[in-house]
Structures are given as structure tokens and as C-alpha cells.
């Protein structure tokens, strides 16, 4: 299983802070995002932006990062500060 976490506006829009997804061979971070986008409008609104960032096992990652069972994937909006 892959543990999936959602932060900030993504969590607010989806109404979900975490879930578990069955790992499949060849799954990437973008493939996981595509699976989530298929869940409907609120998921498309939350994850459809090109600005969404992904971290795999607490490391900022690219969308082509391969996922395996036991991974933790987090989706979050860009972070700004001052």
C-alpha cells in the first residue's frame, strides 16, 4: 500500500487528509495523481493545477518518480513565505 497525504488547500478542497492506495507495477507520482483526478470534480480542482507539488518519502520529487509499496506520497501547493 502507498500512504497518500494531502496538505493545505488540497486537503480543504477534497475533504481528505490521507488515504491508502494499492501499489501497482510501474506506478509513478503522476500516475497516482491521474488516478486521483478520476475521482471527480473536487479532486480535479485540488490536484489539476500545474502548481501542485509532490514529495515521496518526505523528499520533494518529480512527477516521474516511481512508487512502490510502503512509500509515502504527499501532495501540497507551492509554499511561500516572508
Strand and helix map with partners:
Layout: E1 2-6, H1 8-14, E2 18-21, H2 29-37, H3 41-47, E3 53-56, E4 59-61, E5 72-76
Parallel strand pairs: 1-5
Antiparallel strand pairs: 1-2, 3-4, 3-5
Helix pairs in contact: 1-3
Task: Give an account of the 3D structure.
The chain is α+β, with helices and mostly antiparallel strands and 82 residues long. Helices cover 28% and strands 26% of the residues. It has 3 helices and 5 strands, in the order E-H-E-H-H-E-E-E. The longest helix is centred in the middle third of the chain and has 9 residues, at 29-37. The radius of gyration is 12 Å and the shape is globular. It starts with a strand and ends in a 6-residue tail after the last strand. The model has no long low-confidence stretch (mean pLDDT 94).
What labels would you give this structure?
alpha+beta, 3 helices, 82 residues, single chain, 5-stranded mixed β-sheet, globular, 5 strands
Structural class: alpha+beta
Mean pLDDT: 94
- Report the principal-axis shape: globular
Topology, number of strands: 5
SS strand fraction: 25-35%
Q: State the low-pLDDT regions, or none.
A: none
Q: How large is the radius of gyration?
A: 12 Å
Spatial gap, N to C terminus: 37 Å
- Give the topology string: H per helix, E per strand: EHEHHEEE
How many separate helices? Answer: 3
Give the strand order of the largest sheet, numbering strands 1, 2, ... along the chain.
2-1-5-3-4
Oligomeric state of shown chains: single chain
Helix content: 25-40%
Major sheet summary line: 5 strands, mixed
Amino acid at each position: 500500500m502507498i500512504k497518500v497525504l494531502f496538505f493545505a488547500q488540497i486537503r480543504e478542497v477534497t475533504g481528505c487528509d490521507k488515504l491508502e492506495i494499492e501499489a501497482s507495477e510501474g506506478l509513478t507520482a503522476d500516475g497516482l495523481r491521474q488516478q486521483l483526478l478520476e475521482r471527480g470534480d473536487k479532486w480535479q480542482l485540488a490536484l489539476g493545477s500545474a502548481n501542485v507539488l509532490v514529495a515521496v518519502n518526505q523528499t520533494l520529487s518529480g512527477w516521474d518518480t516511481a512508487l512502490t509499496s510502503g512509500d509515502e506520497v504527499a501532495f501540497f501547493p507551492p509554499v511561500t513565505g516572508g
